[in-house]
């Protein structure tokens, strides 16, 4: 199997499996129980929250464990939008036009609830700029939303610059950091945002576990509880905590903290090799997105005149796993909304583009096999 779709999900690494297995067997107590095996499980949960806080350089009191980034995005955005409007601050939100559906669909809901949403499209250089957010801001604006790294094309958005500006303007600012966390050497204490989110399965932990960091600069902007019940997660998200998965997720990030720079170097190397090989084999292609501001582990490539959906089938038969667009829309193979936002004038680009995303185990031999299949596909045409 050649897996080149790490932006969709990552395999759970062995060390993380081991951490989870140990927790499942040895720490099965309910963290809310008052006897010893409950208390020891609670202790592990508290320690994991502290470790995550250290890794991210944020306060442990601002971390909320969730089922993943979809839940976290929904929660952070709705909570901040609805409270800001209730406090009479306004009803206008500005967002990049290349966000994940968990952000976009939350905004569709808010639009139906009477909020006004402005979408910032990439400019002709393929950049979503902070200047465009500033220009669209008006009296009624309450918040900004931008992802750190786009999951389909790998572009890096100017979230640090946006954060500084949002703070100056006292706007809430939400960042979906899913595709950056664990992979880029960022200090999240320097990211001036009121909330950001991560998802375990994008960095070698299981699916169904993630977190939100909520750190408003306006203390009136208290987080609205998401689930009522026994009062877990500081009374904001009740339900018995998934301690084994929390421990596994934090372990995964701890391991990456030590390795991420060497993995990044490896990804840079693979990136150069990929484009060298495409050129050497005279495959007609263009890179999607702005190559100057992107991560080396997500690649979106327009393969001119090749139908991506057909190429994907051939790759699948050859045991090579790549994607067209993202895997986030319930298995659909419709044209990518992200590529539509980037290239409204070139419809052929929407259906002739593929995404390749590297992980720590990816190799040049994987790329060679991928190239062989593209050539086969071209020959068959
Ligand atoms: N945001 C981004 C940028 C993503 O790539 C994903 C996963 N595809 C999500 C949010 C949703 O994360 P989860 O699968 O944990 O709900």
UniProtKB/TrEMBL annotation:
GO molecular function: cysteine desulfurase activity; iron-sulfur cluster binding; metal ion binding; transaminase activity
Obligatory cofactor(s): pyridoxal 5'-phosphate
Organism listed in the record: Fundicoccus ignavus
Enzymatic reactions: (sulfur carrier)-H + L-cysteine = (sulfur carrier)-SH + L-alanine
Limits of the Aminotransferase class V domain: 2-370
SUPFAM superfamilies tied to this protein: PLP-dependent transferases
InterPro entries xrefs: Aminotrans_V_dom (IPR000192), Cysteine_dSase (IPR016454), PyrdxlP-dep_Trfase (IPR015424), PyrdxlP-dep_Trfase_major (IPR015421), PyrdxlP-dep_Trfase_small (IPR015422)
Protein name: Aminotransferase class V-fold PLP-dependent enzyme
UniProt KW keywords: Aminotransferase, Iron, Iron-sulfur, Metal-binding, Pyridoxal phosphate, Transferase
Family, as annotated: Belongs to the class-V pyridoxal-phosphate-dependent aminotransferase family. NifS/IscS subfamily.
Keyword Iron-sulfur attributed: yes
């Amino acid at each position: 199997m050649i897996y080149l779709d790490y932006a969709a999900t990552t395999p759970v690494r062995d060390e993380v499996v081991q951490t989870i297995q140990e927790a499942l067997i040895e720490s099965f107590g309910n963290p809310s129980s008052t006897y010893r095996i409950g208390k020891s499980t609670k202790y592990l949960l508290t320690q994991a929250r502290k470790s995550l806080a250290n890794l991210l350089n944020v306060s442990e009191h601002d971390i909320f464990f969730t089922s993943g980034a979809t839940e976290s995005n929904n929660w952070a955005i709705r909570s901040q939008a609805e409270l800001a409007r209730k406090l009479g601050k306004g009803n206008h939100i500005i967002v990049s036009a290349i966000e994940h559906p968990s952000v976009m669909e939350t905004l569709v809901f808010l639009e139906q609830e009477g909020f006004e949403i402005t979408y910032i499209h990439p400019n002709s250089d393929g950049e979503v700029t902070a200047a465009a957010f500033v220009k669209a801001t008006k009296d009624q604006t309450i918040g900004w939303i931008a992802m750190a790294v786009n999951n389909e094309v790998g572009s890096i958005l100017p979230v640090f610059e946006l954060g500084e500006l949002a703070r100056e303007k006292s706007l809430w600012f939400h960042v979906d950091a899913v595709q950056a966390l664990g992979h880029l050497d960022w200090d999240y204490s320097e990211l001036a945002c009121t909330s950001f989110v991560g998802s375990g399965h994008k960095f070698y932990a299981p699916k169904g576990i993630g977190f939100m960091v909520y750190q408003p600069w306006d203390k009136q902007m208290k987080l609205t509880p998401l689930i009522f019940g026994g009062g877990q997660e500081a009374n904001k998200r009740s339900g018995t905590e998934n301690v084994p998965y929390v421990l596994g997720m934090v372990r995964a990030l701890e391991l990456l903290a030590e390795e991420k720079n060497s993995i990044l170097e490896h990804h840079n190397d693979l990136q150069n090799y990929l484009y060298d090989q495409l050129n050497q084999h005279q495959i007609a292609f263009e890179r999607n997105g702005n190559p100057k501001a992107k991560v080396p582990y997500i690649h979106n490539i327009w393969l001119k005149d090749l139908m991506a959906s057909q190429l994907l089938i051939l790759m699948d038969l050859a045991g090579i796993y790549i994607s067209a667009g993202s895997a986030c829309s319930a298995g659909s193979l419709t044209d990518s909304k992200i590529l539509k936002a980037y290239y409204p004038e070139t419809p052929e680009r929407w259906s002739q583009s593929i995404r390749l995303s590297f992980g720590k185990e990816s190799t040049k031999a994987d790329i060679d096999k991928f190239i062989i299949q593209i050539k086969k596909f071209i020959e068959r045409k």
